[in-house]
Amino acid sequence: MDIETDGRFGNKRVHNRLGLAHGAASSSTSGKVCIHWRAGRCNRFPCPYLHSELPEVTTKRPNHSGGPGGHVWRNPNSGGVGGRGGGGGPSKWGRGPGGADGGPRHKPADRPCRFFLAGDCSYGEKCRYPHAYCMSDSITLLTPLQGHEKVVTGIALPAGSDKLYSGSKDGTVRMWDCQTGQCAGVINMGCEIGCMISEGPWLFVGIPDAVKVWNMQTQAEMTLTGPTGQVYALAVGNELLFAATQDGRILAWRFSAATNSFEPAASLAGHQLAVVSLVVGAMRLYSGSMDKTIRVWDLATLQCIQTLSEHTGVVMSVLCWDQFLLSCSLDQTIKVWAATESGSLEVTYTHQEEHGVIALGGMPDAQSKPVLLCSLNNSTAHLYDLPSFSDRGRIFSKQEIRAIQIGPGGLFFTGDGTELSESTTTMFRKAREYPMTFTRTVVCSRAEASRIPLGTVREKQLSAKILPLVRSSPIDLLMVI
Length: 481
Hints:
The protein is mostly beta strands. 4% of the residues lie in helices and 42% in strands. A hairpin with a 5-residue loop joins strand 7 and strand 8. Residues 28-54, 107-134 form the C3H1-type domain. A zinc finger (C3H1-type) spans 28-54, 107-134.
């Protein structure tokens, strides 16, 4: 074992090497690569250590065992995977590289230099550890948006707007200009922000004991009272706004055009502890709670029709994809639920992680294939193909990624917090098959945008109105107004 003292924070790097040094005896130095040779400064002759790299040693990872209209994230090319309850043939969940059926797995990406992530690696290009925030052939980092002083808890990209909004536990809402990446304004809420979503022109922000509402078109502002404690999650469905509260209730409001305001509609009770996640899909509201259960609510009657109790930890996030429900928990699992013949939900596949899972997001790739993005409480996020759960790459951050927001044209955002009292909203995009520099956002009319497929922007497809802008600065993202 060779020990190299790097002098940073008094830490030491320890490296184990395999193999046998040329001409060396079978001693404590055998089978090790010279760390000074790696750094290009070995002056020992003869040197008892190897001056060459060893062949890569591959190991076989253990298999993970699997289980037997609304705002739904859908795969455009999917005709359904396995039918209701996973029927119609063998289940495709977890089958493929990285799945639970024992298929070949991709080698997991090495973790980048932790000093680079903290912003103070003194080795620079000579560092033996990767200097990168993501390790994937499918995504690239655009830019970090820095400004919040505590963890980012919500990100919203309102339709028809060229502004991105982020909320944080530092009590502020920041507005970012999508063209320049600069902060265009700060709203001081005076309290921790628990969540944030946008729906049409509306921006909703969950705070303790209330929900703040802004209309981005009319600049109207209102406060919805009724929650007790922090509002951890928000969702919109069937013309209702739902808020998940700290006291275990889910409150609902309906917009009244007559009074131009949101009026209380219902209070859904059933969870024993705080509700921390909501999603709407197929006329159902799904709620995840700290009581380790998921409740299924009928949007027509606002009654609980089923309680799912398979998780053994806090249900941190729920996501709809086609006819499936995906849920993640601090119990280190992602569960896939499918409807049975009777209409009730049952677990059809369980994906095991090595750390607790705290957030889920879904998007199609450049070939319209579904990709799952999940963040873990070890400050990483994994990308998986669905339904195989094949590894597509990893994202690394300074602290846990608490917020994920999917945008148009292959764009998505992640929000985290750092030990340096500096929080970051990070912008990623999926890599294309053709090289292009992406530095600007162009705002065009709805009619103009309808003739330009999102995510496949090429110069020959652009009209004369946008072509001069593109020639001076290539674009990828089109914001429709």
